[in-house]
Design goal:
With 502 residues, this protein is an alpha/beta fold. It has 2 domains: 273 residues, 3-Layer(aba) Sandwich (Aldehyde Dehydrogenase, Chain A, domain 1), CATH 3.40.605.10; 185 residues, 3-Layer(aba) Sandwich (Aldehyde Dehydrogenase, Chain A, domain 2), CATH 3.40.309. Helices cover 37% and strands 22% of the residues. Strand 11, helix 8 and strand 12 form a beta-alpha-beta unit. The radius of gyration is 24 Å and the shape is globular. Bound molecules: nicotinamide-adenine-dinucleotide (NAD). Nicotinamide-adenine-dinucleotide binds next to helix 7 and helix 8.
């Protein structure tokens, strides 16, 4: 094992930030650019927590070469042994969870209990996937022809490019990297530039767990600069990307040119439907967590609440009160319930949607402004914001805001609620609150989304269940669950003939 920061013996929070390197072919190496970029704390804009390599396409090229060179030996290792390495990595994550969570809170702002949860997801999925290495992975089937037997086997694809967003800095890189490796592929990981530190930690841990040189390569830098080099290289067999629908569309177009496999997990405009028989306090609590948790920056965040008009006023009043009670602050403070946005640029982007909502005629119940008072000065803070009297076609009800903004859409019936819920280009997650079993089953059938929650908010995943969306929230693939390994492998059908030729 080599170190990501060989020259440094400093502790984490000393003034001089560490400079992390790329990890290529089992070595931590500087970019050929000779340049770095800063990873900053959104709770305190001036605090640089680490420096990372501003890589170039030449670094990506070197990473792909290393991954390609490592592929034959890695795919030849029996899958249970590959699983054992992933299990060791999961156990190392578990042992260091608190320290990793602290770093994650410092690099992207969400409170410690959420960053602990982010890492817990990676741990749980690592343990789950490790066991998948020992499962039978194909079918044995009779042939229609005498003296013949047929079977299917699963084979790795080769080099997989993994491109990840900043909002789940450990969970999402692990969701992709673990099953890709387990299936026998080698990986080039490009994390989001707002959160490279958590991916650097994951890379170090997999290295320490015994991953052979070149099986995982880690390159940091701008997606705009590095993306094409990774996505269009003919040596890369598959791209797995989680990010915005806009970037996903571009990556899919590039992959489509040479029919490269591409798995996309993209944006959402997730709705909670609240029927007139719902337990309102339960619904308010769930929407407050799903709408304002991670400062509204989850792909599954609740950004629309479609409420029966009989209870819309009461719901709006209670949700605004809950939003105003939330403690906003530095995620390192254990009393904090909502941290900052991921960077200062996002404050202006979210505020633009407040202006758009007001311009469209929606009524602002609370929030709608940046928070700059007292200890919040210097951080990327935005008030939990609730709009009501929103119409389904308004931009604030159609576009992914990715901030703490919830829009209440009053409706007169179940049918109108479903129509509103299904009216966006997205289809990731949707929830319904009702006490009526018939309405529950109708909603399970009628809502067009990849994830449905009943009497719970729109967020939350379990490692053994598939995760993903329909319409422009993805391209039909699913992460997590045992299907996750299938995503990263190819079926081979084998026919074995054994006639007596004597
Ligand atoms: P983003 O699309 O800006 O970036 C995602 C990744 O793509 C980053 O690593 C970025 O550097 C890279 N990238 C940017 N331009 C690229 C290009 N031209 N070619 C290749 N890669 C490129 O998204 P983000 O702001 O990091 O994350 C937020 C988005 O991710 C939201 O839309 C959110 O809904 C979505 N998301 C979806 C899921 C899901 O499972 N569906 C989960 C988390 C986040």
């Amino acid at each position: 094992m080599t170190s990501a920061h060989p020259a440094s013996t400093e502790t984490q929070e000393q003034a001089q930030p560490r400079a992390y390197l790329n990890f290529i072919g089992g070595e931590w190496r500087p970019s050929v650019s000779g340049q770095t970029f800063d990873d900053t704390n959104p709770a305190r804009r001036d605090e640089v927590i680490a420096r990372f390599q501003k890589s170039t396409p030449a670094d990506v090229d070197a990473a792909i070469s290393a991954a390609q060179a490592a592929f034959p030996a890695w795919r030849a290792m029996p899958a249970p042994q590959r699983g054992a390495i992933i299990l060791r990595a999961a156990l190392l994550l578990e042992a260091r969870q608190a320290e990793l969570a602290r770093d994650m809170t410092r690099e992207m702002g969400k409170p410690l209990r959420e960053t602990m949860g982010d890492i817990q997801t990676a741990i749980d999925f690592g343990k789950f996937v490790a066991g998948e290495g020992s499962r039978p992975e194909g079918d044995t089937v009779p042939s229609a022809i005498p003296d013949k037997m047929c079977m299917t086997i699963r084979q790795p694809l080769g080099v997989v490019g993994v491109i990840t967003p900043w909002n789940f800095p450990m969970a999402i890189p692990a969701w992709k990297t673990f099953p890709a490796l387990l299936a026998g592929n080698t990986v080039v990981l490009k994390p989001a530039s707002d959160t490279p530190l958590s991916s650097a930690h994951l890379t170090e841990i997999l290295d320490e767990a015994g991953l052979p040189k070149g099986a995982l390569n880690f390159v940091t830098g701008s997606g705009g600069v590095l993306g094409d080099a990774l996505v269009t290289d003919p040596r890369v067999a598959m791209i797995s990307l989680t990010g915005s629908t806009e970037v996903g569309r571009r990556v899919a177009e590039l992959c489509g040119r040479d029919l490269r496999r591409v798995s996309l997990e993209l944006g959402g405009k997730n709705a909670v439907i609240v029927m007139d028989d719902a337990n309102l306090d339960e619904a308010v609590k769930a929407v407050s967590w799903a709408g304002f948790g991670t400062t509204g920056q989850r792909c599954t965040a609740t950004s629309r609440v479609i409420v029966h008009e009989k209870v819309a006023d009461a719901f709006g009043r209670k949700l605004a009160e809950a939003a105003e009670r939330l403690r906003v602050g530095d995620g390192l403070d254990t009393a904090t319930e909502m941290g900052p946005l991921v960077n200062q640029g996002r404050v202006a982007a979210v505020h633009e949607y407040t202006e758009i909502g007001l311009g469209e005629g929606a009524s602002l119940l609370t929030g709608g402004r940046a928070l700059t008072e007292g200890e919040l000065a210097g951080g990327a803070y935005y008030a939990p914001t609730v709009f009501t009297n929103v119409k389904p076609a308004m931009r604030i009800a159609q576009e992914e805001i990715f901030g703490p903004v919830v829009s209440i859409i009053p409706v007169a019936s179940y049918e109108e609620a479903i129509q509103a819920a299904n009216s966006t280009i997205y289809g990731l997650s949707c929830a319904i609150f009702t006490e009526d079993a018939r309405t529950v089953f109708r909603a399970m059938r009628d809502i067009n989304a990849g994830l449905i929650y009943v009497n719970a908010g729109t967020t939350g995943a379990e490692p053994h269940l598939p995760f993903g969306g329909v319409k422009q929230s993805g391209n039909g693939h699913r992460e997590l669950g045992h299907k996750a390994v299938e995503e990263f492998s190819e079926i081979k059908t084998v026919f074995v003939s054994y006639p007596d030729v004597k």
